[in-house]
Amino acid sequence: MFTQQPTMQELFVQLGLDSSQDAIQAFIDKHKGMSGHIEEAPFWTQAQAEFIKGALAEDAEWAEVIDQLNAELHHQ
Predict the structure, then answer these.
(1) Domain limits, the chain
(2) For residue 3, what pLDDT is reported?
(3) Largest CA distance in the chain
(4) How far apart are CA 47 and CA 5, in angstroms?
(5) Superfamily (CATH H level) for 8-74
(6) How far from 64 is each of 11, 29, 61, CA to CA, in Å?
(7) Most exposed residue of 25, 51, 53, 72, measured as fewest CB within 10 angstroms of its CB?
(8) Rounded CA gap, 19 and 53, in Å?
(9) SS3 assignment, position 3
(10) CA-based Rg of the chain, rounded to a whole angstrom?
(11) Other beta carbons within 10 Å of 12
């Protein structure tokens, strides 16, 4: 269990994605402007979508950083 809030880099590691700053920014830039719920985005694998959905439903320690990513992806 985390003793502090997970970071965006840790979220990307958890999702099995490249967690470098450049890769995170490229991911956000590529998917920016998405609509709908983050866990329903078509670019996630089933496992990634289930992790995100579960973390949000349980208001797990991941929820805050997922919300941050969600805001970045919905931003125009």
Answers:
(1) 8-74
(2) 61
(3) 34
(4) 22
(5) Uncharacterised protein PF10982, DUF2789 (1.10.10.1130)
(6) 10, 20, 7
(7) 25
(8) 20
(9) coil
(10) 12
(11) 18
